[in-house]
Amino acid sequence: MQPMNEVPFETSLAEYAEDMLDACTRCGKCVEACPSVEPAGISRTTKSEDIIGGIRELVRTGNGPEASRKWAQSCMRSGACIKACIWRQSAFPAEHGAAWHREVGQ
């Protein structure tokens, strides 16, 4: 039996990343939750929305502001950004408990 829609992994991953970038509201919740911000030497006065805008630019073009590059390079892989992401929470509601669903009214 042949797979229904065989797409190379790299293509699928690139499409997922592009979907995430398009869905990102630049709310900055991921930066606020991240334990890497201070160790990266990024001032807490730097607007998290600006850092995220720079990350989007980095992913799409390879260029971006210094604070965004520092944040990306200092990633500790804690997953705190993923847990804080509003888009991810709404896209994958089964990953969240009943308290979260009550909080967001779903």
UniProtKB/TrEMBL annotation:
Cited Pfam families: Fer4_10
Limits of the 4Fe-4S ferredoxin-type domain: 14-45
GO molecular function: iron-sulfur cluster binding; metal ion binding
InterPro entries: 4Fe4S_Fe-S-bd, 4Fe4S_Fe_S_CS
Organism domain of life: Bacteria
PROSITE patterns associated with the record: 4FE4S_FER_1 (PS00198), 4FE4S_FER_2 (PS51379)
Record key words, sorted: Iron, Iron-sulfur, Metal-binding
SUPFAM superfamilies with a match to the protein in the record: 4Fe-4S ferredoxins
Protein name per its UniProtKB record: (Fe-S)-binding protein
Lineage: Bacteria, Pseudomonadati, Pseudomonadota, Alphaproteobacteria, Hyphomicrobiales
